[in-house]
Amino acid sequence: MRAAPSLQFETGLGAVCRICTSVRVILLAAGIGFLSIPQAHADTPDSVCLEHPMQALSAYLSSYEDASALLARTRSVDFYPFSFMGRDQASGFRNAMVDALDFMPGHLVLIYHIDPTMICVFAWEATAPEEMIYIRHTIDRDALEDDASAIAALFAARVPRGAARSADRGGRALLRMPSGATPEDRLSRIAKAMAPDTVLHAAIARAEALVFHVPGPLAALPYLALPLGGSAPLIETHAVTLLSGLNDMIDPRTSRAAAPLEWQSSSGSSVVVVADPHTPAEGIGGAKFSALPGAAREATEIALRKGGRLIEGADATGTEILAALQDADVFHYAGHAVADPDRPLEGSFLALADGALDARTIQMRSLSKGPLVVLSACDTGQGQTLGAGIVGLARGFQIAGAAGTVLSHWPVSDLSAEPLMLTFHDELVQVTPAEALRRAALQLRSDYPDPADWAAFSYFGIPFVLPASEDGILP
Fold this sequence. Notes:
The protein has helices spanning 21-29, 53-75, 89-101, 141-156, 183-194, 198-206, 293-306, 318-325, 359-363, 393-400, 414-427, 433-447, 451-454; strands spanning 16-19, 107-114, 118-125, 128-138, 209-213, 239-242, 271-275, 309-312, 330-334, 337-338, 349-352, 355-358, 372-376, 383-386, 389-392, 404-408, 457-461, 468-469, 472-473.
């Protein structure tokens, strides 16, 4: 399968706050630094969603850095401290966000955290980057995480047997099917928890593209299907980027608005496409894989349209693909994949002609060209859920140096993935990966109205922007 400076601040639960540059000046003139205010509103010593916005942001950054370091220690990945960190890390981060948003017209950045009884969001608009919107409110965390964890399995159950780009392990019976609400109902409840206030609704409505950084429990959601800030799914109104980490917002590639994207032209860029590898007859890791005619057609057509290198069948080995990745601007894989939440690095892999290309092997590479990676296969966004995100194939490519990865949240249909990916690459000539994916999913929805088909993929990585043109930003 495959704005004008202003301050809005209310105390108590359900608080909505705007903190901006002018407020900072007033506080400093009064001799009060943001971080010198004691965190008196913490429910527990480990709480992040505090009453005061800058205290909450400071607590969040400390918590995130600890979670990232833990991920690095437990999963053998490199950990790079934030370049804006210092004694006043909250102000440093806020200033970095202002700088990044100067290059991101039309974007809204949303950073979430979940405490045991509360959820909070820090948000920045490109139209007023000096302001920070801060909202917190109480939640039933167990119910929220139950909804989030059930959605992928519920949508996966709608993918027809035999049409999926995943291993043959005895069919859908192995899925532990959640009972109760539909995935659409669960997404509606999650959307209300993530955007409970009209201030955030208005900010979402003003934006053209959303950038999310979310904790592990919310990382596997199909955000294009999320009715955030309204009743319609985001696919109708917003391109969506999922950050792999906070450093994505200060990556130099995020701010190259005046530079063309390598993949916006079929000439001058290196495109590598892998088509339905012929996996060993004995299987890989106890799983056997069937042929995927849709994946073969998809990859062959993409290679033809883009003038790319096609690696297919028995030639699609780990050695061949890893070598080709080093020079690729775009890498597209159409085939089988497996995700293992218990062994996310060794047990999550692309199924190739000579066996498994696992996440650990991938993340040990150095992809200096920062390619766009497209994983048109099953469950490539799944893995082990930790506080800093999900460990698996998609993160493996990001750690190796990919600029962004198109990933899947559940087993994808070999029938619907083909037209979606062809449209995605056609749109990629003129728009960003996130917008190209939105347009492709929107077009697919006319023929495949079930979100199990059109919402299966997300863009994960650096929030690229379009190059400037004489008329402003390209359409």
